[in-house]
Amino acid sequence: MIDTKKIGIALEGGGAKGAYEIGVLRAIQELEIQYDCVVGTSIGALNAVAFALKEYEKYSTLWKNMNFTFNNSGNDKSSMVKMLDFEEIKNNLYKFEEEYLNSKGIETDAIVEMYKEHIDENTVRESKIKFGLSTYCLTDKKQQNLFIDEIPKGMLHEYIFASCNLPVFTPREINGKYYLDGSIYNKLPINMIAEKGYKTIIAVRLRKDPYDFSKYKNIKIIDIAPNEFLSNTLKASQGRINWMIDKGYEDGFRVLSENLSDLK
């Protein structure tokens, strides 16, 4: 039997825009909304850790100290894959793969080490809130929607990076395969929660564009989204990050307060 009281959260991908999601977490905690599952794509996968552990203070501090101004000047720009148009990638996937796997971009070791420093894998696995992420396996040409029990032990940080892996980074091999940012096919992984039978889902989006939720029939979608542009994907000043966190809190608190009868 499906428990209609169970609540899931889906976090959209969007690079630096993800600071907004951390503000929403603050609103959820202040309103004492209980949820059972959180999934994310790209930066949403990274933020999903904060939601799974209910650690707003820790991760808001990390965001406020995060450098989201990437400098590619030290790389051979002629060998870098700069194509961030996901539709173009999908339309020329095999050509893209050949270019990408022979490219050199922003190095990844320091990023994965940062994940390891701040994310305790065992704690995520032991959380009562189920964690999941979406990534795209370039090697297999297949979207992978993985919950924590489907991610090999000891590999959580690698798969979080796989979900965030824009083609501006140097290709990183994970267990013999290469992955791309999950947003290429699944920017907002509501389907992961819907397929588990959840009837109430909080969707946290990072763009003001309308979103078609019509395929999720008989599911209450509580849509939290900005009403203005947040930031570029790979560039945001500290001031802008702080503003996005505050904006996420304000929007989240307002929308969630309006829907408390469905959340309590």
Radius of gyration: 18 Å
Distance, first to last CA = 20 Å
**Global geometry:** globular
The percentage of residues in β strands lies in 15-25%
List segments where confidence is low: pLDDT < 50 over at least 5 consecutive residues. Answer: 72-82
Q: Which secondary-structure class do the elements indicate?
A: alpha/beta
Tally of helical runs = 11
Question: In percent, how helical is the residue content?
Answer: 25-40%
How many strands?
Answer: 10
What is the N-to-C order of secondary-structure elements (H for helix, E for strand)? EHEHHEHHHHEEHEEHEEEHH
Q: What is the arithmetic mean of pLDDT? A: 91
- Main beta sheet, described? 8 strands, mixed
Q: Overview of this structure, please?
A:
- The chain is of the alpha/beta class and 264 residues long.
- The protein has eleven helices and ten strands.
- Strands 1, 2, 4, 5, 6, 7, 8 and 9 form an eight-stranded mixed β-sheet that branches. The chain has a two-stranded antiparallel sheet with strand order 3-10.
- Helix 1 (19-30) packs antiparallel against helix 3 and helix 6 packs across helix 8 (156-164).
